[in-house]
Write a structure and sequence with these properties.
- There is one protein chain.
- The protein is built from 8 helices and 11 strands.
- By secondary structure, it is an alpha+beta fold.
- It has a 9-stranded antiparallel β-sheet, with no helix packed on it.
Length: 361
């Protein structure tokens, strides 16, 4: 009996983490399946990824249909049920954590699995601006459907003004004081008010996610086979024209312990320099523990804060640093998502910028 009890206990100890992992995997699979189903109705080109343009088109067509069916309760119910699950614009922006304006099933599933109540407000400054613009446009399209005389302006009655508070807001929004709201006036007032109310929620969500997040994987950049990126480098020497070169990286293989990549040096026309047609192959090992760095003889880099930059067709949240080295002072913007990826660098005679980035197929 004692042996049976001990064996059962051992089996329980062994199986518990396995079962927990299986449960976690099942939840992720279910979330991804649901996310793919949410994306599919608006995925015009059928590539399994929802772009911002596709979402806008889908929600615009839905809005038009709902406005047309306003008096038809059965049709309205049918439309709402048919569109259930279609991502809202705010969800799109919050779930699109790499800010490439494309939403994959993985991103939407990860968003759905997040336990935070504030996840809908996990927005960059650029996200918040875009959300405010989209919200203003959305509300205007709903409001202008009540434009009885079709002059593309709203009277107080058409705008649904009833209370003294409504009247005050109408007067505040009516910039030229002609008693009518144009599309510009209506949206500007709504956008400004939306950003004012949303900003504290965004700041709270940012603080929560920053506190809860694990340190970013320092080798995340090298852990996707097929990923490529390219930098443009401009070197200025007194009395000479600026010299432009390009450097391209391509991840060719990834395993648990290391990654293999090729590096190419290209001329100003993005053609391989002599002897660099095949590039150079390098291997990067992923250490189990990060070694302690040695102090820089010029003093360590100084962190200046965080900014969002646009480069290579997407927005990047960056840590901004300043470093004195070799008699020059460099300022550089480093990706938060991919530590080590320079988005932009400025020096006295040297400048670098990210011009291409692709995750491949």
């Amino acid at each position: 009996m004692r042996r049976l009890t001990f064996a059962t206990l051992c089996a329980t100890i062994i199986l518990t983490p396995v079962l927990a992992q299986e449960g976690e995997d099942a939840a992720k699979t279910e979330a991804k399946t649901k996310a793919a189903a949410q994306i599919k109705p608006a995925d015009i080109d059928g590539d399994g990824v929802l772009t911002l343009a596709e979402l806008r088109a889908a929600r615009y067509e839905l809005r038009k249909a709902l406005i047309a069916a306003r008096e038809d309760k059965a049709k309205t119910k049918e439309l709402n049920e048919g569109s259930r699950g279609l991502p809202e614009f705010q969800v799109f922006l919050a779930a699109d954590i790499n800010n490439d304006m494309k939403l994959s099933a993985d991103e939407l599933a990860n968003f759905a699995l997040s336990e935070s109540d504030n996840k809908r407000w996990r927005l960059t400054d650029n996200d918040l601006e875009m959300l405010a613009q989209e919200t203003g446009q959305d509300r205007w399209e709903w409001a202008i459907a009540r434009d009885a005389n079709t002059d593309n302006h709203l009277t107080a009655d058409e705008a649904g003004v009833k209370s003294e508070k409504d009247r005050k807001e109408f007067r505040d929004a009516d910039l030229d004081k002609d008693g009518l709201l144009s599309g510009y006036e209506f949206q500007k007032y709504g956008i400004d008010r939306f950003k004012e109310k949303a900003k504290p929620k965004v700041e709270k969500a940012r603080a929560e996610f920053k506190d809860a997040a694990n340190p970013n994987d320092p080798f995340a950049l090298y852990k996707k086979k097929g990923r490529t990126w390219m930098h443009k480098t401009t070197t200025t020497i007194q009395g000479m024209d600026p010299m432009v070169t390009y450097m391209k990286w391509e991840i060719t293989d990834v395993n648990e312990d290391s990654a293999t990549y090729r590096m190419y040096i290209l001329d100003k026309d993005k053609k391989p320099m002599a002897g660099m047609e095949e590039g150079t192959e390098n291997k990067l090992a992923f250490p189990k523990e990060m070694p302690e760095g040695n102090p820089s003889p010029d003093g360590g880099p100084k962190e200046l804060g965080e900014e969002t930059l646009e480069a290579a067709g997407r927005n990047w949240v960056c840590k901004v640093w300043e470093q004195a080295s070799g008699g020059q002072t460099f300022k550089y913007w480093m990706s938060v998502e991919y530590p080590g990826l320079i988005i932009k660098m400025e020096g006295d005679t040297f400048a670098q910028e990210l011009v291409e980035f692709s995750d491949g197929e």
